[in-house]
Design brief:
Length: 492
């Protein structure tokens, strides 16, 4: 059942939120041990939230557009009184004293939060293997990764543990796992969704966005969480463009540009290239005017991102010093300065290898002698990418590109070589650098039978047309990939 279908049934009293929740908790009980989508399942608070929704309906009140819809939250979104870990040891024992704005908006619309999902530590990674709590597995093939960093959220939706989920996308962390798990995932325009209560990775790139089983459900969730927020100074002041406004409008006459540099970039596997071409053909058959377009600077996005994101991360993560949050290791009283020793031991033990790598990369890129050569140059590349996209959007309404270079890869396959892992983000990063929205839609499968995702990109605040094109792409997609079968027959 879709999220919209659940909400309609619950609002009209046809179904109880509690029965919807128990169905999802049943699937979690059957298969979570195999998938490990969650850091924490919130059985009791979810039951209380569902019962409150049912009580509201019984009393004749409308609980909201997400009435009774089970939602999973990436565990870098602050939840009041509920541990929020970023899948890191450094936050051991820390519990946020406040809810993220998106969490408050979900509650206000009657959603039921089922749990906190696993991620790559501090959202750094593309496979969810960088979690301090162990990897998440792809529900389509338990020997493969779900993508990352929001792999737990993508897997939770793919496995039917939650109808919807929230993730964060700094360089592709919603879209790439959505593609690998065969679900829809969108990164909104920078500033559309409040980041208040999202634990920062790279503040100029981070955005919260939806995972769903369909384009319409993703739009429903995005519309519920977007909009101005005085608590986030980067949140846009104006009313957001409605993502759901033109879902059924089709693409007749719409100008669609296939990004030449990404559609057949080096390292994109042949089956993904083929699906992207078929997606373009499908939109053309539906009436769109499809042509190739060049966004030359896009190919430098990856290099620029791996300077800018670590630079911002090195600064954002300086706050985990053993004093203010979570873990504190004791300094050696006889040693070289107690407090310095405490910082050193806390950060050495609290952070995993990838987070340390990013902090070192970022600190180096920002150091006095290298600032211009690395950080400054990366910022100039960012400007070029924005300029090239602007030129493309003079001729096109939306753009098309692959989401990830391949289908889901095997657990452990890319952990030994960080660069191979980073290459996963080549097609998703340009949108983050530009601050533009992009959505990944499942489009057939690869040679191995696993899901492939194709991205629709739009200019800033182009969510309405982006979801319009995405809905048409979804309607034209080949019959769904192999269904998920988990826990002895529980399936979506
Ligand atoms: N995979 C990218 C990285 O490791 C993107 C992460 C993200 O979007 N949070 O930085």
């Amino acid at each position: 059942m879709t999220a919209a279908g659940i909400a309609a049934a619950v609002r009209s009293g046809q179904r109880t939120a509690r029965s919807v929740l128990e169905e999802h908790l049943g699937r979690i009980a059957a298969a979570e041990a195999d998938v490990h989508a969650f850091n924490l399942v919130l059985h009791e608070s979810a039951r209380a939230a569902a019962d409150a929704v049912d009580a509201a309906v019984a009393a004749g009140r409308d609980p909201g557009v997400l009435a009774g819809v089970p939602v999973a939250l990436k565990d870098n979104l602050c939840t009041r009184g509920v541990p929020t870990t970023c899948s890191s040891r450094i936050l051991d024992g820390w519990t946020p004293p406040y809810d993220a704005t998106v969490v408050r908006r979900l509650a206000a619309e009657g959603a039921v939060v089922v749990g906190k999902t696993n991620l790559d530590e501090f959202a750094m990674g593309s496979s969810t293997e960088n979690s301090a709590f162990g990897a998440t597995r792809n529900p389509h093939d338990l020997g493969r990764v779900p993508g990352g960093s929001s792999g737990g959220s993508a897997a939770a939706v793919a496995a039917g543990f939650a109808a919807l989920a929230l993730g964060s996308d700094t360089g592709g962390s919603i879209r790439q796992p959505a593609a690998l798990c065969g679900v829809v995932g969108a990164k909104p325009t920078y500033g559309l969704v409040s980041r208040y209560g999202l634990i920062a990775f790279a503040s100029s790139l981070d955005q919260i966005g939806p995972f769903a089983g369909s384009v319409a459900d993703a739009a429903l969730l995005l519309d519920a969480i977007s909009g101005p927020d005085p608590l986030d100074s980067t949140s846009l002041r104006d009313a957001p463009p409605p993502a759901s406004a033109r879902l059924g409008a089709g693409v007749d006459g719409l100008r669609v540009g296939v990004v030449a540099e990404l559609a057949a970039a080096e390292g994109i596997s042949a089956d993904v290239v083929a699906r992207t071409r078929e997606a373009a053909d499908a939109l053309a058959a539906a009436g769109a005017k499809v042509d190739e377009v060049s966004v030359p600077a896009a190919v430098y996005g990856l290099s620029a991102y791996y300077l800018i994101a670590p630079a911002e991360a090195s600064s954002n993560l300086a706050r985990y010093d053993g004093v203010r949050y979570g873990l504190r290791e004791r300094g050696d009283p006889g040693g070289a300065g107690d407090i310095t020793d405490m910082y050193l031991k806390t950060r050495s033990r609290g952070f995993g290898a990838e987070v340390k790598r990013r902090i070192m990369l970022g600190t180096y890129a920002l150091s006095a002698g290298y600032y211009d050569a690395y950080y400054g140059k990366a910022q100039r590349v960012r400007t070029l990418i924005i300029r090239d996209f602007a030129a493309a959007y003079e001729r096109f309404d939306v753009l098309l590109a692959p989401t990830a270079p391949s289908t889901a890869f095997a657990l452990g396959e890319k952990t030994a070589d960080p660069i191979t892992m980073y290459l996963n983000d080549v097609c998703t990063i340009p949108s983050n650098l530009a601050g533009h929205p992009a959505i990944s839609v499942p489009f057939g499968c690869g040679d191995d039978g696993l899901p492939v995702g194709v991205q629709v990109l739009a200019p800033a605040l182009g969510e309405t047309v982006m979801f319009q094109a995405a809905a048409a792409l979804e309607a034209a997609a080949p019959p769904a990939h192999v269904p998920v079968t988990l826990g002895g027959g529980a399936s979506q």
